[in-house]
From TrEMBL:
Single GO BP term: RNA metabolic process
Gene Ontology terms, MF aspect: metal ion binding; RNA binding; sequence-specific DNA binding; single-stranded DNA binding
Stated name of the protein: Translin
Alphabetically ordered keywords of this record: Cytoplasm, DNA-binding, Magnesium, Metal-binding, Nucleus, RNA-binding
Taxonomic lineage of the native organism: Eukaryota, Metazoa, Ecdysozoa, Nematoda, Chromadorea
Family recorded in the similarity comment: Belongs to the translin family.
Domain of life: Eukaryota
């Protein structure tokens, strides 16, 4: 091999690593941008959660709180979702999933919590995605991952369990029976799933304690003669 061949090999290696360096730098910039957007999204999540926490002390229908959450979603959250969608192509969604997955799980939970307080029903995954301008199909773009939605459902069950306890304190004796039926239904539906995600399975294990707590609340109300005259139907749970 003459010197020109050796020089050519060196140049080829140099070009290859130059290309790799540029790709790594683009990825670094993208991740930084994603973290910045997610930071703002998490700020909105915290603000909405603070608003919804006020409902724990009020037995009345939380119209003002739900309206405030919907306004935050419309005015801020959807803009952050669009910023993420503009930066993430379908083929790299899971490459950067760890950056925004927890924010999306929390956002799904907040959306479902607000809807449950208003309508008394569980939003299915397409409805949550629609509320947030997210896709459902992974091939269609930036979407609400199924497992992220399921984490949101489990978080909702835990939050409603606490809500049931506080409802009794506030003098609302009907809501705990509705919540108990809902949480039990969620537990039954999750047991039908073959969960391969270890984190999701561990999170599901906590649900049995939520079921037990709800059962204790409604049992205490029943023996005190505070059970509603008409039984509260179990809510439909759709994935």
């Amino acid at each position: 091999m003459d010197e020109s061949d050796g020089a050519g090999s060196v140049d080829a290696v140099h070009r290859m690593f130059q290309s790799i360096r540029e790709e790594v730098e683009r990825d670094r910039i993208l991740r930084k941008e994603l973290y910045n957007v997610v930071r703002e999204l998490e700020n909105s999540n915290r603000e909405m959660l603070t608003i919804l926490q006020k409902t724990h002390s009020s037995p009345t229908k939380p119209v003002a709180e739900v309206a405030a959450v919907r306004k935050e979603i419309k005015d801020c959250v959807k803009a952050y979702v669009r910023q993420l969608a503009d930066r993430i192509k379908p083929n790299v969604y899971y490459k950067h999933h760890e950056i925004y997955r927890y924010a999306l799980q929390r956002l799904a939970f907040i959306t479902m919590f607000a809807s449950f307080l208003e309508e008394g029903e569980l939003l299915d995954r397409p409805s949550v995605a629609h509320e947030l301008d997210l896709k459902v199909d992974a091939n269609a773009g930036f979407h609400l991952d199924l497992e992220d939605y399921l984490f949101g459902v489990l978080n909702l069950a835990s939050e409603l369990t606490r809500y049931a306890v506080n409802a009794v304190t506030a003098g609302d004796y009907a809501r705990p029976f509705q919540i108990a039926a809902f949480v039990k239904n969620v537990d039954e539906m999750f047991r039908l799933l073959n969960m391969k995600n270890d984190a999701l399975r561990r999170r599901f294990d906590v649900l049995k304690y939520d079921v037990q707590k709800c059962e204790q609340v409604v049992f205490d109300l029943a023996i005190r003669g505070l059970k509603p005259s008409q039984p509260t139907p179990s809510e439909n749970v759709e994935g």
